[in-house]
Amino acid sequence: MPTPLIRSTAKKSHRSVKRVEAYWDAAKKSAAKHGFKTKDPAFWAYTNAIVQKRAGLREKLTFKEFLNLGS
Fold it and tell me: What is the DSSP string of 28-55?
């Protein structure tokens, strides 16, 4: 995850940078497990959405957002 995004997420969620980095690593593994490829923008959108959710910055991924990840 880019450092500015890690710092921003950590600051907004009141969590440590180290914890947010751990969320990012786990989310990347989850995205790959679900068939997303790193060259696909949906991979990064999915990964960021998971990190945001785990950090408590979003309630849930809406069905519409989920559908848009694949396009």
Answer: HHHHHHTT--TTSHHHHHHHHHHHHHHT
CA distance linking residue 31 with residue 16, whole number of Å: 23
CB 50 within 8 A of CB 69: no
Q: How confident is the model at residue 41 (pLDDT cuts 50, 70, 90)?
A: confident
Say if CB 20 and CB 13 are below 8 A apart: yes
Whether pLDDT at 60 is above 70: no
Place of tokens 């991924």: 61
Burial zone of 24 (CB within 10 Å; 0-12 exposed, 13-18 middle, 19+ buried): buried
- Residue 51: which of 9, 2, 8, 3 has the closest Cα? 9
Instruction: Please report, for the chain, the start and end positions of each structural domain, with discontinuous segments joined by +.
Output: 3-69
